[in-house]
TrEMBL record:
It is an enzyme of class 2 (transferase). Residues 6-60 form the Maltose/galactoside acetyltransferase domain. Its EC number is 2.3.1.-. This is Acetyltransferase. It comes from the Bacteria. Belongs to the transferase hexapeptide repeat family. GO terms for molecular function: galactoside O-acetyltransferase activity.
Length: 199
């Protein structure tokens, strides 16, 4: 049986995004997020209810500062105790898995979507998407871009302004463009974080 463009998109195959089904789903997400981004700041429960209906998975503990943008919503899977600062963008053409206790700084972008390098298929409208996975206890600094297919290991810190093009292991500090591991996180970081005067 022939796959739909949506099935091809989620499977990581080349697909056409401008068909009726995907366009309607993107439009639905835009309408929901218009409401989300324009509610009064005090309407936290109402905002969270919009995301609970839109996302593939949430828990009772998450907070995303508006404005927030995504393509579809149903490919976003949030772990427990999630926080994202202003201007988070998630292009969720493929699944985006976010673990527990993840913190994201302002102006961060998660891009599962990609396009062919060659101009002919690109201008013909072909796209592809690869999943992004962020492990438990990860902190992503502001103005970071995470590219398609990237996995970030648990407990890792991504420095501000990074462009993450490849997988980053767990328990490290990584930063840069392209993002590279700078060092491991050790028990010494626990002490110096709480008591910086202790050497």
């Amino acid at each position: 049986m022939k796959k739909t463009e949506k099935e091809k998109m989620i499977a990581g195959e080349f697909y056409q995004a401008m068909g009726k089904e995907l366009m309607e789903e993107r439009q639905y997400a835009k309408e929901q997020l218009f409401q989300y981004n324009n509610l009064e700041p005090s309407k936290i429960k109402a905002r969270n209810q919009i995301l609970k209906k839109l996302f593939g998975k949430t828990t009772s503990r998450f907070f995303i500062e508006p404005p927030f943008r995504c393509d579809y919503g149903y490919n976003i899977y949030l772990g427990d105790n999630f926080y994202a600062n202003y201007n988070l963008i998630i292009l969720d053409c493929a699944p985006v898995y976010i673990g527990d206790n993840v913190m994201i700084g302002p102006n961060v972008s998660l891009f599962t979507a990609g396009h062919p390098v060659h101009p002919e298929p690109r201008t013909a409208g072909w796209e592809f998407a690869k999943p992004i996975a962020i492990g438990d206890n990860v902190w992503i600094g502001g103005h970071t871009v995470i590219n398609p297919g990237v996995t970030i290991g648990k407990n890792t810190v991504i420095g501000s302004g990074s462009v993450v093009t490849k997988n980053i292991p767990e328990n490290v500090v990584a930063a840069g463009n392209p993002c590279r591991v700078i060092r491991e996180i050790t028990d010494a970081d626990r002490t110096t974080a709480l008591f910086p005067e202790v050497k």
